[in-house]
Design brief:
mainly alpha; Serine Threonine Protein Phosphatase 5, Tetratricopeptide repeat; two-stranded antiparallel ribbon; 2 strands; globular
């Protein structure tokens, strides 16, 4: 054999082969240095993982491609699609934004971005994306569907129906647009039309699981549970390996009041789907999702032992331990996770949450703020920082963090609930409606969104919209107490007292241990001056259940109202024994002990409450009042000061501290500051007017003192103290005839008033 005609011996052949290998290696190295080749290989690898539904691995490969070329629009879009599959909405949002910046004509990316913006209730921005697509292609069905959903969310249902009809005209053979039309028809309670629409979709694609599940949801909402079950069973027969379908069937059985049957579905699914990743935790997740916390914790504990390398499972187990206040155990698990990966942001957030739960609020806030310095888009960190600010008595900062959480994670239901609760408290109907709408979209089978939306409609004076949403809340969760309670509250607002009572009773029939339902029923009876009936009803209900600490506190309060002080004390002792952290029960027990003259015991009860919850400002306030009653002024002053350290704007504590300092020694300027704080928070309170007026009197600012005392007397004309203090201010201002009149008024109102002798001696003023 020759090489270009030259004979080759074994040595020359070896050299030639070596040169060939070297050339090949050089070629490969050159290729690996070529960024275009590298980024394309990453994308191809990501595509392979994506097709196999290995989304975390796909995300890594697409991310690598983006690192090679930050302007690689295709990789950005594919990474966004992967994040959507992983429900990593913050990442998806960022990647979609980057995609349309690089590739403005990527219409699919714009539709995906618009749908994310819709979930986050950024309606104007979502509409911009839809309109951009429609300007390019007026027959784009996806853009029409997006615009239809935007119009419905805006309350423009007719326009929404028009847009979805245009989508169907553009793509008459695609079932998804019929599903969207049926969704709008359900929204306006046109159930027969929705069913007909879905039947049409079924004719187009008889094996569409999506259509079957929409039919099941429609039937379930109408309480046609056997029909719903039939649709879900058919869907399972078509997609036997889809765990979500088994979970849907289990939830349906729960709706039918068959929890054992529901559990069996999940148990069977866990066995039959053993080859599917994460199927082993289906039962634990099921228990957690329906509120069976004890069973869920037990399952997670076993699974955590069996799968020590499953980091996601370990973190879920830690979260459950935190919810049970088993903070040391949770921290040990989190420490192990962080030992393996010190950058695990979810674990770092959980560790910060533990600090907050331990009452180490400053440390928890600091830890969360540090996370956000490097991860400003971490929605969970923003949410837990909001919780920390709530605990520390900073509601405005808390609300800001909840808003940031929703901005980063539009799908975060907990943050939406927090915003809804704040909006409800402050009567902010726009935010309440916004959060309610978001929850309806995120969790259509949960009653929460419908309830919040109904509250918003009630605030807006739209009573016709309230009943349908509350009825829908009952339809999706017929075995939960909350929808019945809320409908009862609405009936109460309508002054339909008998109907309200029926709804509360229905809630108790569905959930006999519902404290909220029993409390609502008690409030109804007390508002009608039927205390005896309320007490009898509570005793009857508690005989059917294992009473919780809150139930016992409710009973104790009614016993106190009925003048059964000894019985109230015994019941409240049981309530505190059942839950030493029940601050309401502890405070009421101390009040009962005070009524019975057991002041030392009451004082110890307050001290115990402070040990259990050192940041409960009400305990410090009540203990301060008791110390005042015992004339232990130093104790009172210390307790009020402690309450103000925790909550600087705590008006009652500021007012009482100023009063003690003015009467029993203290820095006069500081007392004035506390009195001003109280007055700003309580501008209509005669008590705050008296305290601030007395501070001005002590400072010799008589004109301001007189004005404040006069304001207080307008609100409380029979208050002897205010008249006496006004008399003193008149003396200081040398208005002796007016002072004499106020002194006489003081004696008329309260001859036994402790300063009456002074008033008597000064009765000759001006003579």
């Amino acid at each position: 054999m020759s090489y270009y005609g030259v004979p080759m011996n074994s040595k020359s052949r070896a050299i030639a082969l070596g040169l060939t290998a070297f050339s090949l290696l050089c070629c490969l190295l050159a290729c690996s240095r070529d960024p275009n080749v590298r980024k394309r290989k990453y994308v191809e690898s990501g595509d392979s993982y994506f097709q196999k539904e290995h989304y975390p691995e796909a995300a890594i490969q697409y991310y690598n491609a983006v690192q090679v070329d930050r302007n690689f629009a295709e990789a950005h879009y594919k990474l966004a699609q992967t994040y959507i599959k992983l429900h990593a909405w913050t990442g998806a949002y960022g990647e979609l934004r980057r995609t349309v910046e690089l590739q403005s004509d990527n219409l699919k990316a714009r539709i995906d971005l618009g749908n994310l913006l819709l979930v986050g209730h950024s309606l104007s921005e979502a509409e911009e994306q839809a309109q951009f697509v429609l300007d390019k292609n007026p027959n784009d069905a996806d853009a029409r569907m997006l615009l239809a959903n935007i119009r419905v969310t805006q309350g423009k249902t007719d326009q929404g129906l028009s847009e979805i009809q245009k989508a169907i005209q553009a793509a008459p053979k695609d079932p998804q647009y019929y599903i969207a039309l049926a969704g709008i028809q359900r929204h306006i309670n046109k159930f027969a039309e929705a069913e007909a629409t879905l039947k049409t979709a079924q004719q187009i694609d008889p094996n569409s699981v999506s259509v079957l599940m929409e039919l099941a949801a429609l039937y379930q909402e109408q309480q046609k549970l056997p029909d719903a079950e039939q649709q879900i069973q058919k869907a399972i027969s078509l997609q036997t390996k889809d765990p979500s379908l088994r979970v849907a069937l289990a939830r349906l059985y729960l709706t039918e009041g068959q929890p054992d049957k529901a559990e069996q579905v999940v148990v069977n699914a866990q066995k039959e789907l053993a080859d599917i990743p994460q199927s082993f935790r289906m039962l634990a997740d099921f228990h957690a999702s329906i509120g069976r916390s004890d069973a869920a914790l037990q399952e997670y504990a076993e699974l955590a032992k069996q799968h020590p390398k499953d980091i996601s499972l370990q973190k879920t187990y830690a979260q459950m331990l935190i919810s049970f206040h088993k903070l040391t155990d949770a921290q040990q698990i989190i420490d192990q996770v962080l030992k393996k990966n010190s950058k695990d942001s979810e674990a770092k957030v959980l560790s910060a949450e533990i600090l907050v739960k331990q009452g180490k609020l400053d440390d928890g806030i600091h830890a969360l703020e540090n996370i956000l310095k490097t991860e400003p888009d971490n929605g969970e960190a923003h949410y837990y920082l909001g919780l920390a600010y709530t605990e520390s008595g900073n509601p405005s900062r808390a609300e800001g963090e909840y808003r940031e959480a929703v901005k980063r994670r539009p799908d975060m239901a907990d943050a939406q609930r927090a915003l809804a609760a704040i909006a409800l408290q402050h009567h902010e109907q726009d935010q309440l409606l916004k959060s309610g709408e978001a929850l309806v979209q995120l969790m259509p089978q949960s009653p929460d969104g419908y309830i919040y939306r109904a509250e918003a409609y009630a605030m807006a004076g739209k009573p016709a919209n309230v009943d349908p949403d509350l009825q829908r809340a009952i339809a999706v969760a017929p075995n939960r107490a909350e929808p019945y309670i809320q409908l009862g509250e609405w009936r109460l607002a309508e002054k339909r007292y008998a109907d309200a009572e029926k709804m509360y009773e229905q809630a108790l029939d569905k959930v006999p241990a519902s404290y909220d339902a029993l409390q609502a029923l008690v409030r109804l009876y007390l508002d009608q001056n039927q205390a005896a009936k309320a007490l009898a009803r509570v005793n009857a209900q508690l005989a059917k259940i294992q009473p919780t600490s809150m139930h016992l506190r409710l009973l104790g309060g009614l016993q106190l109202t009925s003048k059964d002080v000894a019985g109230a004390e015994a019941t409240l002792q049981k309530a505190v024994a059942a839950n030493p952290n029940n601050q309401d029960a502890i405070l009421l027990l101390a009040k009962v002990q005070t009524v019975r003259g057991e002041r030392d015991q009451a004082r110890q009860t307050y001290e115990n409450a402070i040990k259990q919850n050192p940041r409960d400002t009400m305990s410090y306030l009540m203990l301060g009042l008791l110390c005042e009653e015992q004339q232990d002024w130093q104790c009172a002053q210390q307790r009020y000061q402690k309450a103000l350290e925790i909550k600087p704007d705590f008006a009652a504590a500021a007012n009482n501290l100023a009063s003690v300092m003015l009467d029993h020694g203290g820095n006069l300027d500081l007392a004035l500051t506390y009195a001003q704080t109280a007055r700003r928070a309580l501008p209509d309170s005669p008590g705050s007017a008296d305290t601030l007026g007395y501070a001005y009197y002590k400072k010799g600012v008589y004109r301001s003192a007189i004005d404040l005392f006069q304001e207080g007397i307008k609100k409380a004309p029979e208050d002897a103290v205010l008249h006496y203090h006004l008399a003193l201010a008149y003396v200081g201002a040398e208005k002796f005839s007016l002072a004499k009149s106020e002194f006489l008024k003081t004696r008329q109102l309260n001859p036994k008033y402790e300063q009456a002798d002074v008033a008597k001696n000064l009765s000759t003023l001006g003579q």
